[in-house]
Amino acid sequence: MTCNEMVNYLVEEFTKAGLPEPKSDACLLMDYLAGMNRSALFIHANDPLDPETEDKLRGAAAKRIKRIPLQHITGFQSFMGLEIAVNEHVLIPRQDTEVLVEEILKEGASGLRILDVCTGSGCILLGLLHYMNGCEGTGLDISADALAVARENSRRLGIAATFIQSDLFDGLSEDEDKQKYDIIVSNPPYIRSDVIPTLMEEVREHEPMIALDGYEDGLYFYREIIDKCRDYIMIGGKLYFEIGYDQGAEVSGLMEEAGFKYVKVTKDLSGNDRVVSGEYSLAR
């Protein structure tokens, strides 16, 4: 089978299975498993695939048809120009989350201490440390399995970071001099419990529920982080959240009630509310 024949085969199988982006999935599998990006596919369209690669692609196609996320098949997702390793223990990084990182990068500061709460794969923290100068970063997560992924990403990308197993802030040092951070960032679980059964099968069945479920109103973790972060953030420090498209007013209201100033909501590329940020102040 030639490269072009394999792409056509994959597209046909994915189309029959009702996958939403059959051509994109086919090309990504060819890229990751056959080392053929779109340019290479054009040049080598009529070249035969070796039997081992053909078998790998057919096996990957069978998994994708079962709605296993493409990123769980390839093992990676591109985020902020970095190849982030992922598996069933962490959320797959989304393009929407790049908006969160980009908002922080607009600060343009260096030498900051950054805390990432609910770090998962570590993609947010590692993206920030990669593009900011002289910063120190710590990621917290309750899941030991997620932290194993984050540490592997840190090691493989050569980006130094500390990762601590912690239920929100509980695992941090009690030494006050080591507690204060210039930036606290979080993409917490924010989907309402009653919405989870309506999610795409790839998300509902294959991504970690602990990273999705924001409980009854989806705001539980925002309340907890806003309330508890005051012991860990510098006066004048910034708090940044990723939010659901319909949570901008509620989360910004929670931050303002807690004494944060200059609270703003930033939209994603689709025009949906995606990031809430504010500056911590003692005045309430």
Describe this structure in words.
- With 284 residues, the protein is an alpha/beta fold.
- The protein folds into two domains: 3-66; 89-280, Rossmann fold (3-Layer(aba) Sandwich).
- It is 39% helix and 19% strand.
- It contains eleven helices and nine strands.
- The chain has a seven-stranded mixed sheet with strand order 5-4-3-6-7-9-8, sandwiched between helices.
- 37% of the residues are buried.
CATH superfamily caption of the largest domain: Vaccinia Virus protein VP39
Radius of gyration: 21 Å
Question: Percentage of helical residues?
Answer: 25-40%
Low-confidence stretches: none
Helix/strand-derived category reads alpha/beta
Q: How would you write the strand order of the largest sheet?
A: 5-4-3-6-7-9-8
CATH class of the largest domain: Alpha Beta
What is the number of independent domains? 2
Q: CATH topology of the largest domain, what is it called? A: Rossmann fold
Pick out its properties.
two-stranded antiparallel ribbon; Rossmann fold; 11 helices; 284 residues; 2 domains
Give a short synopsis of this structure.
The chain has 284 residues and is α/β, with parallel strands linked by helices. It folds into two domains: 3-66; 89-280, 3-Layer(aba) Sandwich (Rossmann fold).
Q: Which helices and strands occur, and which strands form pairs?
A:
Blueprint: H1 3-16, H2 22-34, H3 38-43, H4 51-65, H5 70-74, E1 76-79, E2 82-85, H6 95-105, E3 113-117, H7 123-131, E4 136-141, H8 144-157, E5 162-165, E6 181-186, H9 201-206, H10 220-228, E7 233-242, H11 248-257, E8 260-267, E9 273-280
Parallel strand pairs: 3-4, 3-6, 4-5, 6-7
Antiparallel strand pairs: 1-2, 7-9, 8-9
Helix pairs in contact: 1-2, 1-4, 2-4, 6-7
